[in-house]
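Recall the central idea of this unit: under ordinary conditions, the amino acid sequence of a chain determines the structure it adopts. In this exercise we apply that idea directly, starting from the sequence alone.
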Amino acid sequence: MGLKEFSRKKEFLICVDSDGCAMDTMDIKHIRCFGPCMVEEWNLYKWESPILKRWNEINLYTMTRGINRFKGLAKMLREINETYTKIEGIEELEKWVAESKELSNAALQRSIDVSGNTCMKKALSWSKSVNIAIDKLDERDKKPFEGVKEALRCAHEYADIAIVSSANEKAVLDEWQLYDLLAYVDLVLAQDAGSKAYCIEELIKKGYEREKVLMTGDAPGDCDAALKNGVFYYPVLVRYEKESWNEFIETAVPKFVEGTYGGTYQNEKIKAFEDNLQ
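Accordingly, the structure predicted from this sequence is:
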């Protein structure tokens, strides 16, 4: 079932990001797949160590954590172009990333069909290689954070649950199904569904009041998507995921359902989130 067919069942809606939020998969995917595949695609082995370190800084440990894969790639390639070696056709990729309403393999292929840009072709090849590398990761290395299943079970008693992720849909479905998490999910919106802000906006149109919608995520993009739509944001803090999910059950969900989430508590959670990524 897609966004178009989905209909509201409960009064409340909780949107949950996947990688790095519900699933402990973000670090391993970037460290073993995204960065190394970029080095291979553009033959950057001469500068591999500093480039991979910078890739992880951009995508994991700073305020650009969780950035869309193509935005992260364009940002990294621009730095490589200016610091290490020229990247042919980077301007066209940057333009597409800035202007495209959909940042996915399919959307990129459509643009390549028109422009034939070299950098965009390599970006698509890289993205496909990343997906293959992720599929090859040991299933034992792709697991939910402690407390996630209990949190989803708790939240689903009161709210419709939608996965809202910028990750590859197949990877999301495979990982959540492996640990029986989809039993507590009503809708899956991944990379091809559009931006997180767009997905939340469209979900609100299903009949939810904004003060009864909560986005749960681990990255600034999740927070921005929530605030842009005037809904609440609950952060899962990097390196404090277990504690975050415990608080989600014990404090966040009760406050959300009781109507006391806004104001002081919301402000405290956003400040703690921002401080944790500085």
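The longest strand covers residues 159-164.
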